[in-house]
Amino acid sequence: MGLYAENFVLLTRLFEPADLAPGRYVSSIGDGLDLDVEVIEQHAYTTELRLTYGLADPVTGEPDPSAFLRLYRDARQVEATHCYIGRRWQDVIGMYPPPAEVVGHRMRMNTFLGKWLHYLAERGHGVATLRRVEATARTA
């Protein structure tokens, strides 16, 4: 669980997500590749959020890369629950993988998250570059 604790420290230093109200935020550092931070929900001891760039997979239209995260404030850990990096988990490990394969996949997702968080910090993303984006009404 050291990886999850390290990711907690990295994410908390970057964006203090436990202090953000639910909604969409954008971190812009002027390189043309903005980071979207969506706080999905704040619970008593957890925060659910999604990190992604404004890029879409040309085949699926899904934001790519993208990571759904759960921040556990009481345990001081962050877990990547789902990642999309060109492929869905079902395409990577199958619909009914053995438990060891699931654990290995989760470790790879959380290792990716740690590397991504380090990269974002090195590029200059952080609380100072984060701004809230007001929701706009979508028309069908």
Write the layout of secondary structure elements.
Layout: H1 2-15, E1 23-27, E2 35-42, E3 46-53, E4 66-72, E5 77-84, H2 89-93, H3 99-123, E6 130-133
Antiparallel strand pairs: 1-2, 1-6, 2-3, 3-4, 4-5
Query: Which overall shape is indicated by the principal axes computed on the Cα atoms?
Result: globular
Number of helices: 3
The assigned structural class equals alpha+beta
Give the N-to-C terminal Cα separation.
44 Å
Computed CA radius of gyration, to the nearest angstrom:
15 Å
Beta-strand share of residues? 25-35%
Q: Record the strand order, biggest sheet.
A: 5-4-3-2-1-6
- Low-pLDDT stretches are none
The share of residues in helices is: 25-40%
Give the count of structural domains: 1
Q: Give average pLDDT, whole number.
A: 85
How many strands in all? 6
Order of helices and strands: HEEEEEHHE
Largest sheet: 6 strands, antiparallel
